[in-house]
Amino acid sequence: MGNIRVRFAPSPTGPLHIGGVRTALYNYLFAKKMGGTFILRIEDTDQGRYVPGAEDYIIEALQWCGLTPGEGLGVGGEYEPYRQSERKDIYQKYALELVESGGAYYAFDTSQALEERRAAEAAKGNHNFRYDNVSRREMKNGLTLPASEVTRRLEAGEEYVVRLKVPNDETVTINDLIRGPVSFQTNELDDKVLLKGDGMPTYHLANIVDDHLMRISHVIRGEEWLPSTGHHVLLYRAFGWEGTMPQFAHLPLILKPDGKGKLSKRDGAKFGMPVFPLGWEGETPEDSFRGFREYGFLPEAVINFLAFLGWNPGTEQEIFSLEELCQAFTIENIGKAGARFDYDKAKWYNQQYIQRSENEALAALVRPQLAPKGYAPDAGYLEKVCGLLKERMTFLTDFWAVGCYFFEEVKQFDDQNIAKRWTPESRPVFEALLAVIEKNKSFAAADIEVSVKDFIAEGGLKIGQIFPLLRIALTGSMQGPGVFEMMGVLGREKTVARLRKAIDYFDAL
RNA sequence: GGCCCGUUCGUCUAGGGGUCAGGACGUUGCCCUUUCACGGCAGAGACACGGGUUCAAUUCCCGUACGGGCUACCA
Q1: Which residue ranges form the domains of chain A, and what is each CATH number?
Q2: What would the mean pLDDT of A64-73 be, rounded to a whole number?
Q3: A486 close to A417: Cβ distance less than 8 angstroms
Q4: Which terminus of chain A is more exposed, N or C, with fewer CB under 10 A?
């Protein structure tokens, strides 16, 4: 079978959707698994939908995810250019070649004329009008017009399109790697436009020409392309390229959390979750989005989550690094049915990855949250804090909420819980305890714990009278890591100052 | 409407003619713990329906239902 070459071919019409990321991921994994090449090609043949910045976004998003193309836009390669708008001449040449060979024809019907025709048919009760092997006989095209008339129109510069001449009465069958044999009746297929009035190719033409020229071995794309694959096969045939036609694998779609339709960009706002890898500044607030990155996701978690939306290794392992995914991936293990976007699962993955992060790595990821607040702790301190906090975070962005007291004084105390535990006798006890803590030699968590527990035992006290109040004194609330671990990290000075301040506050309540 | 694809716990899924239908998320309970979290244990929870084929179907075939996709000079 020659070299494995796969391409991810998004169109730059806006930020890359998470479904697109998964398509890229599966292409990437397949390429890596097979020792092949992962190619990035930009399908910008619709000048009307081109969005500035989208291309950079795509590249940045792939990079964030770790899905680096081995060839293509931004990387270069043997088959440049990889931006379809720069390949216009190529498509034109092939389209005309197809007209010559009889596989395609010129058509002069304007979009407006077609619209009117469709409306007229609809009025008659026929909602299925299409430009096909029957209706083309009554349209204005190279098959109905005399040759001289066609030449005249072309020479007059009249706008035209090139349409695929779909043959009659044939059955086209592909063997989809995920779904098995899928057949299409050519009589059901319309004469797709290949070359548009503006001289640009449609997806159908461009993708076949490029896949052929770029020696693509496998086309792994979303299921929304399955219905037009019959046309694609016909095109390979018309060009005489069927012998080297790539194999197809149509991926199941990612569905909305409620299962009603495929996930779309608006679902982010609707369900309160990200549907794009990175944030995007659109022209309006409705067109601006926070991405997984801004929500506080780790790219490794997003990748792991996405990989399992429609694929699984057949084992019970759930956590996979990108490298492990590359090893384990097979197209055979991709499911057929659409998968709902399970945001709870995504959160769980993120939490798992945060917990497994090295303190050092986590500290670096979390540091940017501190600067705007005016804090720049030294690395060692921040790492220790991360060590205590990481099992309490689901998102990177939880860091501040969950551990702000490691950087600034307690602003809000849990008065209810203080009132429940603080008695008139508490003050002398806590003052004595404070002295014990302050005098601790090493100020290591374990040592403080010993002395505090000794103090409690000697005084005939109960842990419940002491620990919770100590905790509230330090953090303001009933939540957080172990009290002594926190003291150890905060250090003698801060710990003592907070306890002293808290005793006054508690007593004044 | 037409064409194409699909259907195992609420969700993601494993499995495959004879299984106690397995795992994970979520959920419930318990344990751990000074608290929250983590972790551990336990529980509830699924083969869409109807016909075949077969000694035996969740698994194979056919229908039905339901869901999804496509149906542009968009990709």
Answers
A1: 5-82+253-340 (3.40.50.620), 85-251 (3.90.800.10), 357-399 (no CATH), 415-508 (1.10.10.350)
A2: 98
A3: no
A4: N
